[in-house]
Design brief:
With 203 residues, the protein is an all-alpha fold. It has helices at 6-14, 18-27, 29-37, 43-58, 70-89, 119-127, 132-142, 148-155, 159-183, 194-202. The two termini are 30 Å apart.
Length: 203
């Protein structure tokens, strides 16, 4: 039996079938789990963020118009949940510029980087050191992976802005990786072709 398509489930969901909405979320659960994995290392916090995303997703049937895919719609909700968390973490009187700030509790000091220097470990550490919006861009582009147009829908920014910010995000990540390598005398960690390097780790 062929699985029910996303479009059929969405239409049923929009008509008030909550079971269809739950089925859709189950289909993309791993996407949301991966989305929050490196942003919230604490399991309890990660589960809370995922729960908030689930509720937002199931309550948003009336806002979905079918102009984007179910995955980008869900990732858009997850992105808003994460941005809200970042702002709350800074306190009610603090202004957080997500394009230039990374959260202290989502970062590791150089002494906490494992000695094995496996590429995945270095990447996760470096991602936590770049600004939050840069981390979002890189993960959406290389780990989902979304097209540039899909990223513009998820982040609600123009296509040209996505291109410009992604270029800077890649530079920020390269610098973070180089800094990790330099702190341990490991010049081989320098990334010369980011696209190939990221694809190898994703694989």
């Amino acid at each position: 039996m062929e699985p029910t398509s996303d479009s059929v489930l969405f239409e049923a969901w929009r008509r008030g079938d909550s079971a269809a909405g739950e089925a859709l979320f189950e289909r993309y659960y791993s996407v949301i789990e991966r989305f929050f994995y490196n942003k919230a290392p604490d399991v309890t916090e990660r589960e809370d963020l995922m729960h908030t995303t689930i509720l937002g997703f199931l309550e948003s049937a009336g806002n979905f118009r079918g102009s984007s895919s179910s995955r980008t719609f869900l990732l858009g909700i997850a992105t808003n949940v994460w941005r809200t968390r970042c702002r709350h973490a800074a306190g009610p009187r603090q202004h957080v510029e997500l394009s230039t700030t990374s959260l202290p509790d989502a970062a590791e000091s150089p002494s906490e980087v494992t000695a094995s220097f496996e590429e995945g470990t270095v990447l996760l550490t470096a991602l936590r050191r770049v600004p939050n919006e840069a981390q979002l861009l890189l993960e959406l582009r290389y780990w989902e992976p979304l097209t540039l147009r899909e990223i513009s829908e998820v982040l609600d920014i123009s296509l040209s802005t996505v291109k410009n910010r992604l270029r800077q995000a890649k530079e920020d990540l390269k610098n973070a990786i180089d800094a990790i390598g330099a702190s341990q005398g490991r010049t081989e960690l320098s990334v010369k072709n980011f696209d190939e390097w990221a694809a190898r780790i994703r694989g």
